[in-house]
Structures are given as C-alpha cells and as structure tokens.
Fold this protein.
Amino acid sequence: MHNYLDFEKPIAELEGKIEELRHLTSDGELNIADEVSKLQGKVDKLLRQTYGKLSPWQKTQIARHPDRPHAVHYIETLIEDFTPLAGDRAFAEDRAIVGGLGRFRGSSVVVIGTEKGADTEGRVAHNFGMARPEGYRKAIRLMEMADRFKLPVITLVDTPGAYPGVDAEARGQAEAIARCIETCFSLKVPLVSVIIGEGGSGGAMALASANTVLMLEHAIYSVISPEGCASILWRDGEQSKVAAEALKLTAEDLLKLGIIEAIIAEPLGGAHRSPETMQASVGEAIAGALKGLGALDGGVLRTRRRERFLKIGSAARD
C-alpha cells in the first residue's frame, strides 16, 4: 500500500479500484484481468503526465516521501561485508550519520550516509537525519581513515539540515560542519556524493563537498528548506511553494548551474515505487563516477575538488 502525496489523489483512486478488482472473481459479464489491465494503463498514463510536469514544491514532497530508499537501504544493497564504525572518539555516537567500511563491487571503500529512519521509532533514534557535532566529527574520523588507507569515499546525503538544538550549538555545530567540509577538500582519495533525498543546508554540504556530486531525479539540494526560507522572507509558512521556486533546488536547476555532475533517473512515480530499481541505478552511477576518478593522482583529486567549488561561485557571479 502506497503513501500517496496530495497531488497523487487521482492515481490513488485508480489504484484503489485496481486493488478492489483483484479481490473479485471473474464472471461471465466481467473479465477482471481485462479491467485491471485497462485501469493499469490509465495509471501509467496518469503517472507519466503527473511526474512529467512536477513543480519544485511537489519535488520537495517526493524527496521527503517516507517510503523512499534510505541510506541504510543503499548500504545493505550495494556494500558487501559492511562493518559499521561508531563514535567520534571525543563525545558520543550520533546515529543520524551512519558509516563504516565495506566493499563496493569488489573494492574496499568507506561509506558515510545521513539516515532519517524508516518508521517513528527509527526516526527518533536517528534524530530525523539531523546530525549533531559528534556526527560530523565521526564523518571526519572516517574520511581521515579512508585517506590514510587510500580508500575511496562514498557519501549518501538525505538530511533536512544539521540539528539546530541548543546542545548542538553548545558543542560547536558550526565548527564541526566547517571542519567536515575542510576534511572533504583535503582528501587525496576519490570522493563521490549522492543526494538521495533532501540535501539541506550545511548539514548536506558537510558530506557533499565531493569530486563528483550525483543527484536523484526528484531529490532536492538547497541552502535552506522552502519552509525556512518562507518564514524568514515572508514570515509566512504558506509561502513555501513560492520559496521552492525561487531556491532553484531541483536536480534540473542544479545541473544547469554546475553544482552537480549528473542526474540519476528515478523509476516512474518516484524511487519509492521501485526501491530495488533505484538502488541498482545508484550503484551504476557510483561505479561510473569512481571509474573516472580512480586513475587520478591524489594531489590532482584534491586540486580538482577545490577548483570545482571555486568555479561554482565564479559561474554564479558571471
């Protein structure tokens, strides 16, 4: 059973009828299989029409869909012999960021991801994907380990942003994020980042200062959430749709601006409709990115990573 978004109500009604028909038995007057086939054709057509003209706000809703594959799902599917590593060796373990060692298509890698949690209990345990300073310091520890042992780093980003609580600020949230970005820029190993859902503010940038940044078709990536932007500019959360348009947060916008390298196509109806297909596509995209970076010298990787971000600012000014 799907969790339908507001703009998917016509699709929900048709799929509800299909589900009802499947519980019926064919009789002389009604061929259930034919009726289901006709309705499924209408669903597919409606999905193509709906997902072919999504607004930035609708894409934001899809990026936040609770059934989208999470970082842990990609790790389970794509990373063999994954060994999670916990703690920042200074304060505590932060479950909003998961990471460790494993093998990606036969090669050893370090993988780090922001994890929102798939149900209520999981979301609370992972703090809805909002990391505290110890989470970013754990990421720093893992990236430095990868650099020491010359292992590529893969990051999976899905966060509304860093945790804004008083305790996080007291322990140096801004400093931890800044040092995490600094560590990304200092690495002499390939760093590939994939925005799999929400890429929110510095909390996302801390893990996405990569050689290659990939983004799922219906993911979002921005300096602030549409709601946060609306509350600051208009003091009105109802303006979130307007803010989403202005922020240029969709994959198409960011590819044009040179902020990401490529868009990974999602299954019709979004990643949540076919998680296995989505995970396979992400695996192919990561493999392609690593192949292109693997032959480069460590100093070249670091220099190109830095130049990549300097060019983004220059392009924006031009």
About this structure: The chain has a mean pLDDT of 91. Residues 32-51 form the longest helix (20 residues). The chain has two domains: 6-53, 60-317.
